[in-house]
Amino acid sequence: MAPGVTYDYDPHDYPPFAVTVDVAVFTIRDDALQVLLIERGNEPYLGAWALPGGFVKIDEDLEQAAARELAEETGLRAGSWHLEQLGTYGAPGRDPRMRVVSVAYWAICAEVPVVRGGGDAAAAALTPVEEIERGRVRLAFDHERIVRDAVERTRSKLEYTALAAKFCPPEFTIGQLRRVYEAVWNTRLDPGNFQRNVQESGAFEKRIEATSAPPAGSAPPARRGRPASLWSVSESTVLDDRPAMPLERPPAKRRRAARRKPTKDE
Amino acid sequence: MAPGVTYDYDPHDYPPFAVTVDVAVFTIRDDALQVLLIERGNEPYLGAWALPGGFVKIDEDLEQAAARELAEETGLRAGSWHLEQLGTYGAPGRDPRMRVVSVAYWAICAEVPVVRGGGDAAAAALTPVEEIERGRVRLAFDHERIVRDAVERTRSKLEYTALAAKFCPPEFTIGQLRRVYEAVWNTRLDPGNFQRNVQESGAFEKRIEATSAPPAGSAPPARRGRPASLWSVSESTVLDDRPAMPLERPPAKRRRAARRKPTKDE
DNA sequence: CCAAAAGTGTTTCCTTTACACCCATGC
DNA sequence: GCATGGGTGTAAAGGAAACACTTTTGG
Q1: Which range among A48-57, A60-69, A251-260, B230-239 shows the weakest confidence by mean pLDDT?
Q2: Residue A12 CB lies within 7 Å of the nucleic strand D
Q3: Does B13 contact chain A (CB < 8 Å)?
Q4: From the Cβ of A202, is strand C under 7 Å away?
Q5: Is residue A5 pLDDT above 80, yes or no?
Q6: Are residues B169 and B75 in the same domain?
C-alpha cells in the first residue's frame, strides 16, 4: 500500500486508530535478566521510564516497525537479535491523548549498547527485571503489564526452545549458556547434568574443541580453570520452535543444597 | 474515551488504521476439533469462508469487541466460553481496501449453535480443522494463517492447563474429558492411565459419585457400560495458567498398538 | 450371556537427580 | 599446591507406559 492512497471507507463505520509498537528488549548483564527502558522526553508521562516504541507507518509491517525502533534505540544492526510478537494492548484510555492500539514485541540481544536518547528518549538504561517485578520502578502507560507478560513469555520460551543461545555470542561455552538459565530464573543448575543435556539435546553442536591456544577474536576471554569447547546452535535447529530443550527445568523443583557425603557408619 | 472526542494528533505523523478483531471459535463435534467459519456476504472475498470478526469500536476494549463478535455469531451468552488473545496480523495489503490491523482471538466453546448469518455473514458452519490443515478449504484474507496459529496455540495450551474442560459441559465424566484430548490430537489414550492422571492432577474434583440413578438434567445421557462419576474443575484451578495438567502428553510419543498378551512359554 | 465403558492394580522401563570424580588451567 | 571451572561416570529414586483385571451397565 503506497503512501498517498485514498481510503474508501466511512470513518463513522470504521473508526481511526493510532497503532504503535512497544518493544521489551532483554539481555543478560551482571548475571541478571535486564530490560531496556528509556526515559520519556515528551508528554504524557514526561520523565517516566517506558519501553522503546513508536507509531507504525502506514506502509510498514508491524514487525518491521518493531525492528526499526529496536535498531534506533540500541544502534544494533538487524539480525543480531531475536524479535517476536508478544501481544496487543489496546484498552480505551491507555493513552490519554487518543485511542491507541499498541502491538508489543519482545526481543533477546546478546548485548545492548546503551545509546543516549535516540528520538524522543531523554535517556536509556538497562534495568533488572527483578526491580520491575518487585514494583520498584514506575512505568508509563501500561508498560509494567507488558514487561511482566514479556518476562513470563521469555522464561516460558527458554524452557522448550534453544533461544537461550541468543543471549550469548554466536559461539559460546556450555558454561556461558548455563549462566543464562541461572540468571533468568535466579537459580543454580548442576553443571554436570547441564553439560550432558546440552550435548544430548541435538540443538547445539561443537565448533571448536577445547585447546590451550589463546582464545582470540570474539571468543570469550579465558578466566580460570580448564579451557572449554565452543558451541553454537546446530544448522537444523529452529530457535523459535519446539522441541529443542530437554534441559533441566529451571523453575520447577528448586535444587536442594548439596548434601554432605554420607559417613561410613551411616 | 467517549464518542465525539476530538483527536489532537496530526494524521501525517500518526496515520489512521482500521482495527478489527477476528475470532477462531473451537469446539469438539463428531469427535473432531472444529472451527466456526462464516461465508462472507460482502466484498472483498465475497462467498469465501472466513473467521467471524469485525471492526473495533472507538470506545471498545479489544477483548470486548471479540466477545461481541463471538456472541453475535453463535448466539451464546458471555461467560460460556474461554476467550484469549492470539496475536495481531497487520501486514500492509492484507486487506485490499485499506490498512487494517487485525487482533486475532481464539475461543473454546462446549457447543456452538450454528446461527444462520448474523450481520454480514451469508452462512455459518463448523469445519474440521483437519480440512484446513490439509489445505482443502480456501479462506479469505490471511485467515488460514490465523487458524493454523490458533490450532497450534490451542494444542499447546491443553498440554499444560486444565482448559480441555472448557470443551465439556460444566460437569463431565473423565471419559468425556479424555475424548477431548483424543479429538484434538487425533490419537488414542490409555483410559486407565488417563483416569489416574486426572484424579491426581488436583485440577479437577469429583462432584457426583457414580450412581445408578437416572442421569437427569444437563448430565450426559448414559449410553452403555458402568456409570461414571461427574467431575468439574476445582475451585482453585486457574484454567488459563500453568501448572495444571501432567496428563499423558498426547502428541509426543505416539502410542504403540496394544501388544498381545505374552504366551506362557515366552 | 456378551460388549462396552469405568475404574484399580501392578510391573517394567526410562529419565532425572545427586552426587563423586577426573582434567586443565591461573595464580 | 590449591582454587576454579570443564567435563564424565553412575547409582538410586521417581515417574510414565503398558496392560491385566474387576465392576457395572445395556442389549
Answers
A1: A251-260
A2: no
A3: yes
A4: no
A5: no
A6: no
Domain check: are B54 and B151 in the same one? yes
Would you say the C-beta of A226 is within 7 Å of strand D? yes
Q: Across the interface, do B15 and A55 touch by the CB < 8 Å criterion?
A: yes
Could you tell me if B148 and B167 lie in one domain?
A: no
Judge if A137 and A58 occupy the same domain.
yes
The answer to whether residue B167 sits within a structural domain is: yes
Q: Average pLDDT over chain A, rounded to whole?
A: 83
User: Same domain for A122 and A109?
Assistant: yes
> What pLDDT does residue B12 have?
53
**B229 CB inside 7 Å of strand C:** yes
* CB contact B4 to A (< 8 Å): no
Which chain B residue shows the shortest CA-CA distance from A15?
A: B58
Same domain assignment for residues A85 and A174: no
- B65 interface with A at CB cutoff 8 Å: no
Q: Which amino acid is at A137?
A: V
Domain boundary among B133, B158, B183: B158
Residue nearest to nucleotide C6 (CA to C1'): B226
Same domain, yes or no, for B29 and B115? yes
For residues A226 and A137, membership in a common domain is answered with no
The answer to whether the CB of B183 falls within 8 A of the CB of B32 is yes
Q: What is the pLDDT of residue B222?
A: 60
What CATH number does residue B139 fall under? Answer: 3.90.79.10
Query: Would the CB atoms of B99 and A17 count as touching at under 8 Å?
Result: no
Q: Which nucleotide is nearest to B210 (CA to C1')?
A: C6
Establish if A260 belongs to a structural domain.
no
Q: Which domain holds residue B46?
A: 16-158
The SS3 call for residue A153 is: helix
Strand C nucleotides in reach of protein CB atoms, 7 A cut-off:
3-9, 15-21, 23-26
Length of chain B measured in residues: 266
Stated as kind and residue range, the H or E segment containing B231 is strand B230-233
CATH number, position B202? 1.10.10.10
Point out the domain boundary residue: B106, B132, B158.
B158
Chain centre to alpha carbon of residue B23: 10
What is the average pLDDT across A123-147? 95
Q: Which nucleotides of D are covered by protein (CB under 7 A)?
A: 3-10, 15-21, 23-27
Alpha-carbon distance of A202 to A237, in angstroms, equals 8
A55 interfacial to chain B (CB closer than 8 Å): yes
Whether chain A has a CB inside 8 Å of the CB on B196: the answer is: no
Note whether residue B110 is domain-resident: yes
* Chunked mean pLDDT (size 10), chain B, 266 residues: 41 81 97 95 89 95 96 89 97 92 97 69 86 95 97 93 94 94 93 94 88 52 81 85 61 33 29
What SS3 string covers A57-96? CCCCCHHHHHHHHHHHHHCCCCCCEEEEEEEEECCCCCCC
* Nearest C-alpha neighbor of B185 from the set B4, B17, B32: B32
State the Cα torsion B144-B148-B154-B156 to the nearest 10°: -160
Domain tally, chain B: 2
